[in-house]
Specification:
Elements lengths: L6 H10 L7 E4 L4 H10 L3 E4 L4 H15 L6 E4 L2 E4 L4 E4 L2 E4 L2 H12 L7 H9 L7 H17 L4 E6 L3 E6 L3
Parallel strand pairs: 1-2
Antiparallel strand pairs: 3-4, 4-5, 5-6, 7-8
């Protein structure tokens, strides 16, 4: 869950950003008012706990059937945009092309907004388990990305959390 937001806040935030992914709220809040609020905020379905697994699966299939195929061409975090087709990072009408490894690191960070991504996770998911790549490679590519984020004049930064990993944050102006 995103820090400081409950399920209702998350639905509202996603819809205000124009995100059209199917959303099913699964919650212990059972009042009619809560259900109406959740659906009015943009949830596509609302289930209360306890629930039967078979019903959850059937509702999930129905949601995906209604929505059709969801194609995501761009990831965003604050004003920063990552085009998944062209590998361009942009902000404030400025664009910069990312190398394949830069793109993969940035995609992983932007796919998990607010969450810490460990160096080991980056090594495994970007470089794979077969190579002899070290944590220095992760540090180097994070440094490259920091320069490119600065180049496009975004307030987003890659923060290092010592002994934990990295996460995207918006700097205070």
């Amino acid at each position: 869950m995103l820090p400081g937001l409950d399920g209702f806040g998350i639905v509202k935030e996603l819809r205000s950003e124009g995100n059209s992914l199917p959303i099913m709220m699964l919650t212990a809040r059972t009042s009619t008012t809560d259900k109406v609020d959740g659906l009015n905020l943009g949830a596509d379905d609302y289930m209360t706990k306890p629930f039967e697994t078979a019903e959850l699966l059937a509702r999930t299939r129905a949601l995906t059937r209604r929505q059709g195929e969801v194609i995501i061409n761009e990831l965003t975090f604050a004003d920063l945009k990552l085009d998944l087709n062209t590998h361009e990072l942009s902000s404030n009408e400025r664009h910069v092309h990312l190398s394949q490894k830069e793109f993969e690191v940035m995609r992983l960070l932007m796919s998990t907004p607010g969450r810490i991504v460990s160096k080991q996770d980056l090594l495994t998911r970007v470089w794979g388990t077969d190579g002899e790549t070290s944590e220095n490679s992760v540090e180097a590519y994070v440094s490259f990305l920091r320069k490119k984020i600065s180049h496009v004049k975004s307030p987003v930064q890659i923060t290092t959390l010592r002994m934990l990993g990295y996460r995207l944050e918006v700097t205070e102006a």
